[in-house]
Specification:
The chain is an alpha+beta fold. It has a single domain, classed as GAF domain (Beta-Lactamase, 2-Layer Sandwich), CATH 3.30.450. It has four helices and six strands; from the N terminus they run ααβββαβββα. Strand 1 and strand 2 form a beta hairpin. The model has no long low-confidence stretch (mean pLDDT 96). The structure holds methionine sulfoxide. Methionine sulfoxide binds next to helix 3 and strand 6.
């Protein structure tokens, strides 16, 4: 089946999210497989939002995160609980917005070009099963709108 993606190039961030969310809903429809769904979400967000890096880290054995589907440059494969922005978002079970990665104690740098970051925990049955991590090559690139719309996208996961 061919999958199409409509991208609004000259639009605000909010307009882009609002256009992509129904398209993601369509892509996820009838598909229960987590990896397939995360892979499509990463692809839509990378292309549709023009993010520098977007991907998922998944909880393994309660102690660490392992790299899941992503789009962008190669990244670190394992992150311990409580480490870096991803491991901290998992431990605290809350979204973390980092305006300047150099000012986040313990930030794990996978690319020197990454300047700001947002990480949202993904919960299933009240348990964190992984995180969504989005990196930007610009400082202060994420805000409450990203938190809101990325959260809505994660809520689409079956
Ligand atoms: N910066 C993250 C590591 C993952 S990369 O950004 C892709 C962190 O501190 O957890």
């Amino acid at each position: 089946m061919a999958e199409n993606l409509t991208i609004l190039h000259n639009a605000t961030k909010e307009e882009k999210y609002k256009s992509l969310i129904p398209q993601i809903r369509g892509l996820l429809l009838g598909e229960e497989n987590l990896i397939a769904n995360l892979a499509n979400i990463a692809a839509v967000l990378k292309e549709g939002m023009d993010f520098f890096w977007v991907g998922f880290y998944l909880v393994v054995a309660e102690v660490e995160l392992i790299l899941g589907p992503f789009q962008g440059l190669p990244a670190c494969t394992r992150i311990k609980k409580g480490k870096g922005v991803c491991g901290t978002a998992w431990q605290k079970e809350e979204t973390i917005i980092v305006p300047n990665v150099d000012e986040f104690p313990g930030h794990i740098s996978c690319s020197g070009a990454s300047k700001s970051e947002i990480v949202l925990p993904i919960k299933k049955d009240d348990k964190v099963i992984g995180v969504l991590d989005v990196d930007s090559d610009k400082l202060n690139d994420f805000d409450k709108f990203d938190q809101k719309y990325l959260g809505q996208i994660l809520d689409l996961l079956p």
